[in-house]
């Protein structure tokens, strides 16, 4: 029996531009949805976006990123798989390495054990989603699949928290290099 060809071959240059444009223009689209539709990984899809919307840091900056975010106050921690989208509004607890994992322990609702050694890339994303401005730090594994995302929190009026925006910008600049961050002169 002959092997079945991939129904979604990797997109060529023109198709990649088309995917990026669609993702930029349609804030209702989830990156994971676009990735599934085109036989790509979520990291591959984000790499189609311009630097003004997505910048990258190496996975080796995992501990630095988590240590910084643990001081931001309440954020949205999101885990997106094909089977569930789990959202937890919480302060990221301080973590430390032990027994092969980065362990989150604290008094709040968020805790667990993350295989940080599998983190290959960290994306700093500035993309409207569900018609709302967002900022997120997205962690991707060695296969380009999402590990989890941390979104800048919102105040009672659903505006992004200004102090967290400043911290996001500073962490992005520090981990992604000295290139100008979107919105700076």
TrEMBL record:
Q: Which Gene3D superfamilies match?
A: HemS/ChuS/ChuX like domains (3.40.1570.10)
Please list every transmembrane segment annotated in the UniProt record, as residue ranges: none
Which domain of life does the protein's organism represent? Bacteria
Coiled-coil intervals = none
Q: Name one Pfam family in it.
A: ChuX_HutX
Record's protein name: Heme utilization protein HuvX
